[in-house]
Amino acid sequence: MKQFSLELERYRVRDGPNASRSMEDFGAFVIPGPCGQDLRVIASPGSLEIPWEHVSISTPRRCPNWQEMCFIKDWFWDAEEIVMQLHPPRSRWINTHPYCLHLWRPTNDAIPLPPMIAV
Q: How far apart, in Å, are the Cα atoms of 66 and each of 40, 63, 72, 73, 104?
């Protein structure tokens, strides 16, 4: 996860839940989206215990669309970094929100990609 830019910091609405963490890579934001909808974002950098960078994206009345997910991905990761949206087993779901999607990147492992012809 790249360091937050000064432009992104303009959209911060509160500190992250763990005040001891650097605010450079953790927090909550409301970012004007590319489709006219404010996007609510919570970002976390992962840790030794949870080696996953994570960003959740939500809107008040609908799920974020592909363009909005790509827009947020580019705010929090570099263009060439691989980031994924996961569909875990339903038994592992917690704190469900009807209009929230998530982006993930493991910090310890590379994410494999399918062959170029399949992408």
A: 15, 10, 10, 10, 15
Give domain 6-118's CATH number out of 3.40.1720, 3.30.110, 2.40.10, 3.30.1490: 3.40.1720
Single pTM value for the model: 0.84
Residue ranges covered by each domain of the chain: 6-118
How many separate helices (H) and strands (E) can be counted in the chain? 2, 5
pLDDT tens for 4-39 read: 778 888 898 865 554 444 445 688 999 999 999 999
Instruction: Enter the tokens of residue 59.
Output: 């809107």
Reduced DSSP (H G I as helix, E B as strand, rest coil) percent helix, strand, coil of the chain, to 5: 20, 25, 55
Q: Is 12:5 a contact under the CB 8 Å cutoff? A: no
Q: Does residue 81 surpass a pLDDT of 70? A: yes
Q: Please check whether residue 67 is in contact with residue 35, taking contact to mean a CB–CB distance below 8 angstroms.
A: yes
